[in-house]
Design a protein that fits this description.
Layout: H1 5-14, H2 17-24, E1 26-36, E2 39-44, E3 47-53, E4 62-68, E5 76-82, H3 85-91, H4 99-106, H5 111-124, H6 129-143, E6 147-153, E7 156-167, E8 172-181, E9 185-194, E10 197-204, H7 207-214, E11 223-228
Parallel strand pairs: 3-5, 10-11
Antiparallel strand pairs: 1-2, 1-4, 2-3, 4-5, 6-7, 7-8, 8-9, 9-10
Helix pairs in contact: 1-4, 5-6
Length: 248
Amino acid sequence: MNISNLSALAKLIASNQNEAKAVIKLASIDVLKSLGDGKYSILLDNKSLTAQSDKPLSEGAKYWTQLSQSKNSTPELSNLLKQPHLLKSLQNSTIEYSIKDLQTILSSKKPESIIKHGLLEHLTNSATKEEFTNTSTLLLSLQNQTMTIPLNYHGYFFVLQFKKRYNKRTKKTQIDFYAALELLGPVSGVISLEGGAVSAELNVAFNKTKQFLEDNMDNISFDVNISLIDTIEPLYSANINSLLDISI
């Protein structure tokens, strides 16, 4: 199994972003303040507004949600899912790759070494504490056998994670996979080789995301099965508080 199969999956989840925005209608919001009685001040597309939530939210956190509004009523937030901290923190970082960069890295003999070299160089040239922390997070992830790659595709940002793992049952190496996207929500899964055929099992958190991906698999050359599940977590998430507090 070639790890470059990840490029095909990355293209699948990153393609047709404008169409995804129109079809899935998944919003990415920042919770600014609780106003009481289930109402919150939120930031949506750089605009502040008041919205009603069907569940308690954390101030300062970022969520995926579906937003609805009838005439002359307060917007309502539903199907809320808290975004991982790494998506918000890395979105403000200067470290990001393109799909072409990803393909080049994954087609090399030692992709981990290429990423590590670039991160160490970036760490040396970090001009702010935030940049130092973000780069250190990516290096810690790599140290824990998980590649965390911030990607930018046609102006849309997402985070991709993957790690190789030996499957004792099949006696084959498989690739665990995770991605966090503003327009699709979280995606996790595994790419495996069994009986000479490559296949992928993906998990998504929103039904419209599942339908959208299933309708856009024309360029995938291997079998992909997509399931809807409630909890999807990153493969690795660094404890930011554990990093040394170093002033640069």
